[in-house]
């Protein structure tokens, strides 16, 4: 066992700077009312001594923890297998790190985990929460509202009813879907199918609505439900080939679903795009470039969505914005999408 040097104290910093302990406390905890010359002396002493503020003591003064909960309403097997979540978490992490905030990741495997997350948020451990991948029957919004934690949601909150106080960041899912289907129609395709995402999530519903905006009189058999996974895409593509063998184009709800559909088409001897054109949604790299053939897709800036969620939350905390659920005006931000053309359509 090695001996460790004692940690420098506030008193030691005060002695080095030639100021009172209270002055040091105000400087290191971000308080006001200290002359610039004294601030510089305290900061110099902190650097020379290697003083690290005690977070618990600092929280008592500032009432801030500098920690943000990121709640993903999915099991860990899904979160760590889907690159969408990695991109969104990367954007969130970059923004929080830039503002010296810690990211606390909370995942939900089942109903017991929802209650655990609710208790944690209500316990005052974090300053706010970023929540995404919610399902329509998810109890988390109610638990979060009850906890009184400032919150920004990822995705249009279809569960919010008439509430106009919910802060969220989303992409133009419906408009992006329309662009994809119009592109397929512009290629002369007439039997355009849609493989949906999980329809208990608003992004999947919006993309289905975008498909229907263009394919007003589409054969209902051309719509196959899936779940945003490659396996779901494979399953849905087999269903489509079984009941609509003349299908000549597919708009898939995301790139993972499209990758599964392409594998089934290849196994069935259908060439993309010659026999069946395929378009995905997300533009997740390198996945979209490595499918066979490379995937035409609708790009949404997933990492920027994460950064913007974190930015909105931190900005609200700095302004002292009322807590989510307190009757703020609507604060939805919808980012644009872009069709990225590659070889599959």
What integer is the average pLDDT? 87
Bin the strand percentage. 15-25%
Give the total of beta strands.
12
Distance between the termini: 65 Å
Entry summary:
The protein is an alpha/beta fold. It has helices at 10-17, 21-28, 36-49, 55-62, 76-79, 83-98, 111-122, 140-147, 173-186, 202-214, 230-243, 255-267, 287-290, 302-319; strands at residues 67-72, 102-107, 128-132, 151-154, 167-171, 192-195, 223-224, 249-252, 277-282, 296-299, 331-335, 338-340. The protein has a 6-stranded parallel sheet with strand order 2-1-3-4-5-11, sandwiched between helices.
Characterization of the model:
With 345 residues, the chain is α/β, with parallel strands linked by helices. It has helices at residues 10-17, 21-28, 36-49, 55-62, 76-79, 83-98, 111-122, 140-147, 173-186, 202-214, 230-243, 255-267, 287-290, 302-319; strands at 67-72, 102-107, 128-132, 151-154, 167-171, 192-195, 223-224, 249-252, 277-282, 296-299, 331-335, 338-340. The strands form two sheets. The chain has a six-stranded parallel beta sheet with strand order 2-1-3-4-5-11, sandwiched between helices. The chain is elongated and about 85 Å long. The N and C termini lie far apart (65 Å).
């Amino acid at each position: 066992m090695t001996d460790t040097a004692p940690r420098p104290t506030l008193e030691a910093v005060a002695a080095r700077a030639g100021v009172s302990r209270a002055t040091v406390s105000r400087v290191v905890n971000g308080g006001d009312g200290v002359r610039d010359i004294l601030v510089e002396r305290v900061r110099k002493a902190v650097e020379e001594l290697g003083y690290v503020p005690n977070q618990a003591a600092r929280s008592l003064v500032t009432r801030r923890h500098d920690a943000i909960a990121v709640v993903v309403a999915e099991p860990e097997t899904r979160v760590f297998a889907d690159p969408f979540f990695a991109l969104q978490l990367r954007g969130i992490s970059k923004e929080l790190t830039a503002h010296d905030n810690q990211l606390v990741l909370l995942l939900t495997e089942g109903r017991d985990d929802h209650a655990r997350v609710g208790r944690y948020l209500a316990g005052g451990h974090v300053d706010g929460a970023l929540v995404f991948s919610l399902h329509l029957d998810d109890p988390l919004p109610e638990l979060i509202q009850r906890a009184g934690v400032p919150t920004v949601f990822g995705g249009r909150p279809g569960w919010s009813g008439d509430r106009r106080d919910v802060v969220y960041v989303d992409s133009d899912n419906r408009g992006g879907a329309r662009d994809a289907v119009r592109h397929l129609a512009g290629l002369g395709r007439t039997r355009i199918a849609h493989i949906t995402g999980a329809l208990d999530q608003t992004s999947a519903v919006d993309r289905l609505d975008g498909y229907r905006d263009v394919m007003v009189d589409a054969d209902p058999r051309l719509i196959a439900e899936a779940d945003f996974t490659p396996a779901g895409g494979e399953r849905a593509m087999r269903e489509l080939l079984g009941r609509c063998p003349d299908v000549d184009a597919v708009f898939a709800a995301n790139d993972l679903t499209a990758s599964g559909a392409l594998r089934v088409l290849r196994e069935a001897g259908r060439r993309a795009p010659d026999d069946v054109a395929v378009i995905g949604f997300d533009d997740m790299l390198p996945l979209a470039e490595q499918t066979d053939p490379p995937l035409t897709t609708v790009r949404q800036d997933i990492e920027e969505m994460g950064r913007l969620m974190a930015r909105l939350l931190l900005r609200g905390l700095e302004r002292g914005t009322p807590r989510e659920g307190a009757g703020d005006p609507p604060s939805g931000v919808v980012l644009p999408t872009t069709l990225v053309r590659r070889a599959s359509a």
